[in-house]
Structures are given as C-alpha cells and as structure tokens.
Fold:
Amino acid sequence: MSVWDALQGSASAAALQRSLARGAHAWLLLGPAGTGKSVAATCIAAALNCPAEPGVGCGRCPVCRRILRDRHPDVHRIVPEGPLIPVDTVRDQVIAAASRSPFEGRSKVFIIEEAERMNPSAQNALLKTLEEPHADTVFVLVSSREDDLLETIRSRCRVLRLEPVSESDVVHLLEREGASPERARLAARVAAGDLPRARTLAFDEAVAQRRRLWLELPRRLTAPAGAAEAAAEIAAHAAEVVKQREQEQKEEVAELAEAMGEGRGTAAARNALAKRHRRELKRLEEEVIGEALATVASLFRDALALRRGGPDAAVNLDARELLQEVASAPVSDAHLVLAVERLVAARASLARNANVGLALESALIEVASLTTPPPAA
Structure:
C-alpha cells in the first residue's frame, strides 16, 4: 500500500513517482481535466513528508492520512477565488507562508490548483519565490492550460504531463477493488478516464444516490415551476453536503489545535485554515450543483447520439429508458444542442456568480423552455 494506489493504472503517475527520487523544488503537473493531477499533487506532498517511507508515502501513517484528508499544517492548497487567483492571494497564502519553517514536517508543500488562473501579477509575484526557494519548500502547480502560464514560470518547474486512464483499465481496476462489472463499466464511462472520480462513483453510495436524483431531472423540466422546484432541490442537496463538510472541518480545527498547540505561528495557521475552509465550502457547493448540471447535459448529448444511431457512445448506461424518452420526444436537435450549451455555460459560470442558486434556477428554466415539447395542435 502507498499513497499512489489512488492513481494505480496511470503510467504518467508512475513516472512521477519515480521522478521524485531526483528531487525538484517546483513541479508543474499538466493534463486535461480528469487525469488525476490534484491527486498526484497530494501524493507528492505525502511522499515528501512521510516518516515511514520517505520519498514514497506509505499511506498508512498519521502524516500520510492527514495529508490525504487535507489536514496537515505544512501542506497548503491554493484554489481560485472566482475566475482568478489574484496577486494578493499569492502574496498572503504562498509567499508569506513560504518564508516560515515547517510546523512539523520535513517540507512545506504549496499546491496551486488551476495555476493558469493566476493573473500576470500573481505569476510574477510567485516567480521570485520560485527563483530563490527555501530548501524545505516545494511548489506543485496544477494546470490544464499550459500556454496561459508564463514561460518563466514553466521553465523553473519540472514538468510532467498526465494522461487519462483508458476505460478498459479503469473497469479492470474497479472490478479488482470490488465493484460489480456493471457498476465498474458505468463509473468508468461517466468518469471519462478520471480514475479517482470513477472510484467515487463506484464506491461512494452518497454520490450514487445523488446521481439517481440527477437522472430524474429531465422529466421535471417540463415547465418553469417544475424547473424552479428542481433547482431548489439541487440547492438543498448541495447545502446538505456543505453542512456535512462543515462538521468535518470542525474536527479538522480540533485536530490542528492538538497538533500545533499555542506556539509559534499558530495564529497565522489558524487564520489560513479558516480562509481555506470558507473557500472549500464555496467550491463544494459549486461542485455538487455542477455535478447535477453536467449529468443533465450528458443525458441530452446521449439522446442526440441515439437519434444518430450511436447508442454505443452513450455515457449514461443506467438511464436507457430515459434516453429513449428524450430521444423520441418532439424536440428539435437544435433545441437539445442549445440546452446542452446552456447547461455547460451555467456550470462554467458558477464560480463567477455571487448567487449560485439564482444562476441555477435561471439555467434550468431556460432549459425547460428549450426541451418541453410544443403543445399538440
């Protein structure tokens, strides 16, 4: 067992694991969505700090377990706030923290998610720290858009490109881990090469239950009132997930207080944790709502594929009856395409909307108007 088990089957992740032995003060993990970049970044942090298997990450010791749960004071995860990562975020959460010694681990690790969303000022502010790194500090930049990063940033990182795992390999791994063949195939198809996401779909019953709810949404998008009710239900489920995570965060705060005591720098660490928790809850709400929007969009895409005689291309293998309903409904291809585009755009805009619930309701009402069959003559 090791922290890398979550990426088993990924040849590029295996190459990354081997590369750790050569060391680097900065990594740039590139690849499309769903290639496990964020998981790989966490694995790097665990491998660098694991006392049992240094450079590997045993996955069993308290240090590894805390890092895998995002509960270690020396592992800092920076995520976009809205559409950008502004320069103030880099200065406050990265540069200032990088100047301090680790609290308890061997290395401080800064994971910058969607690093391409740092604006030019933020990238230039980070550059000096990358040029003059502390020996106990490692940066891991995660990005799907290499060209949006400054060449000077890229040149100071060891670059690794991650590729999606093939569907057949994902199915094989999930079956080996205990998933039924049907559930493994569905999870692999929906996850599109994202092994960690496939595992969640195959083994997390709460996610499976949410998916069953999302699959019923097209049947409810028959009128503005039904769309508004569906939006309210999605928002309520997102709020419940956020509430559960808030409870876990309270446990994390208690765990951090026990580990750190009241010594040097603890106030700064507590403040940083509080800010991270607020950002995490916002992103979690967006993820659950985005999950619903993406599921409905994929159902409409599948229906279009069925109309073109391509049932083998369907993603939603567990919704064949519904897909036949949508495909046979007297709604034009053009309207289905517009509905998919509206759902995709709504999902992409969640991070920019102050009122996520209102944005969700607006999108579903518009989709309902596009996909409701016209009244019989």
